[in-house]
Amino acid sequence: MWGWLGSLSQQSANAAFPYTVGEPRSSLNDKSIWKLHDGRKQADGMPVSIFVFEKAAAPEDLIKLARSSFFRLKTLRHPNILRYIDGVELDSKICVVTEHVVPLEDYLAENEGNASRHVAISWGLHQIIKGVGFLNTDCSICHSALCMAAVFVDAAGEWKIGGVDYLHKIGEAQPEPVLTYLKKYQPPGGKGADTNIKWAVDVWGLGCLMWEVFNQPLPQSSSLKSVAKIPKNLVAGYCELVSANPRSRPNPTAFLAACRKPGGYMANDFIDVSLQLEEVQILDAGQKEALFAKLKDCVDSFPEPFNRFKVLPILLQAFEFGEAGSAVLAPLFKLGKLLDTTEYQQKIVPCVVKLFSSTDRGTRINLLQQLDLFVEHLQPNVVNDKIFQHVALGFSDTVPVMREHTIKSMLLLAPKLNEKTMNGELLRHFAKLQMDEQPGIRTNTTICLGKLAPYLNSATRQKVLMSAFTRALRD
Q1: Region for residue 44 given its phi and psi (left: phi exceeds 0; alpha: psi -120 to 50; beta: otherwise)
Q2: Bridge-based pairing state of the strands 19-24 and 35-41
Q3: Using only C-alpha atoms, what is the Rg of the chain?
Q4: Do the beta carbons of residue 142 and residue 136 sit within 8 Å?
Q5: Residue 44 φ then ψ, to 5°
Q6: Is 170 helix (H, G, I), strand (E, B) or coil?
Q7: How does pLDDT run across 126-155, given as a tens digit for each residue?
Q8: 240: number of Cβ within 10 Å
């Protein structure tokens, strides 16, 4: 790596740029003045993306453009804009470090044929349109180079605006595209033709992006006249975006509202839930509970990366701060299956241990009902030392349904129990439950004892089962 950084010594290079740089991605070749590399932060291994501009053979005006882009990305902060992390200008290079992303073209190719591709694209376009609205309306800034090559996708499948090389204040002179590749994305009339309508240039770019998402990288400007594979419920809106008359192009907010109307391309459960998740911090307790209950039924149709890197962290945070009650459990355990063993032990098991100590009866019953979703991930020492003592309180609970669910849970927990817990504490509780006032409780206790027989030592098994079955026959 240090040779890659040029003339710096290893020690000074490490201080100036503490990242490991991987191989470049080829999909941006000839489409950007930057080379995109996958990388990692050396301190903790965190994956990042590294945009590199080679200064050595570049003319001064191109170096100035790269410096301006570096500054712009560093100062722009918005959820739909590529997130800057770090950067440095060296003797021969400018390096900009961002959150880990892949070019949109690569993302679409990798997810070709994916069952959730349609909803992922609808949400992605929604995010880019919001980002354009932020730039044009809130900041009075024009991106002026919006196309597939300027959009990147993070680990959760969230689309981000990048490619900010030609960003400028609306009303100022628009930079001339340096790369021939970008000239086909210019609106009719050339640069400066649409300055009276501040969103006209970028909305045209949205139309170009939309065409590319559903077809292929735009071969030439005239291809925009054919709607090709653009979905039918998006065609009318698309035609407005690429209208030859800049005054006929809708502002981003109005276009988004039209797409969200019933029957519109962006009217779906995935976007509804995604928007609520973005505002989860301001939802009241009832709204959060309704949202998490809805998630249980619909996460199966969502893209897996979105579930793992967007939904699951929100559920874990909601649980940690006690914001959603037992409603958070079903989707939390369902999505927990997406984690590997190490991550599950780090993120989910501590939640489970904490839940078992809850005094809320509804939460404890809900937890026992879903025990089969996570029991395989519980280590025997955790079950014996941290969980069983709390579960055992249910044996003497005043509510019969709590006692019943506690008895049934032993069938799943038994393989994890040590001999002391199984042959001592558990059997003492079962002896009391065989004299429970509820006939169903007495019956289930006897059935459960029979199924637990293989886990009892031979001496205890014969003694306990004979007594239990004889008592049951007298019932």
Answers
A1: alpha
A2: antiparallel
A3: 30
A4: yes
A5: -135, 5
A6: strand
A7: 999 999 999 999 999 999 999 999 999 999
A8: 17
d(CA 344, CA 354): 15
Which H helix or E strand runs over 469?
A: helix 458-474
What share of residues in the chain are helix, strand, coil (percent, to 5)?
60, 10, 30
Can you list the residues of the chain whose pLDDT is less than 50? 1-3, 6-13, 192-194
Q: What single string gives the DSSP state of each residue in 345-385?
A: HHHTHHHHHHHHT---HHHHHHHHHTGGGTGGG--HHHIII
What the block records as the tokens of 362 is 């509804």
Q: Going edge to edge, which strands form the sheet with 101-103?
A: 101-103, 151-154, 159-161
CA dihedral 331→333→336→337, nearest 10 degrees, is -110
CA pair distance 343, 85, nearest whole angstrom: 25
Dihedral-angle region of residue 114 (phi above 0 means left; psi in -120 to 50 means alpha; beta otherwise): beta
Question: Which residues touch 162 (CB under 8 Å, ≥6 apart)?
Answer: 73, 81, 82, 98, 101, 150, 151, 152
In whole angstroms, give the CA distance from residue 132 to residue 208: 14
DSSP letters, 427-462, are: HHHHHHHTT-SSHHHHHHHHHHHHHHGGGS-HHHHH
Total Cβ atoms within 10 A of residue 440:
13
Question: CA angle 156-204-108, nearest 5°?
Answer: 30
Burial of 137 per CB tally in 10 Å (0-12, 13-18, 19+): middle
CB under 8 A, 24+ apart: contacts of 468-473 = 468/430, 468/434, 471/434, 471/446, 472/434, 472/442, 472/443, 472/446
Q: d(Cα 247, Cα 196) in Å, to the nearest integer?
A: 9
pLDDT in tens, 191-225: 544 457 889 999 999 999 999 999 999 999 999 99
The residue type at 94: I
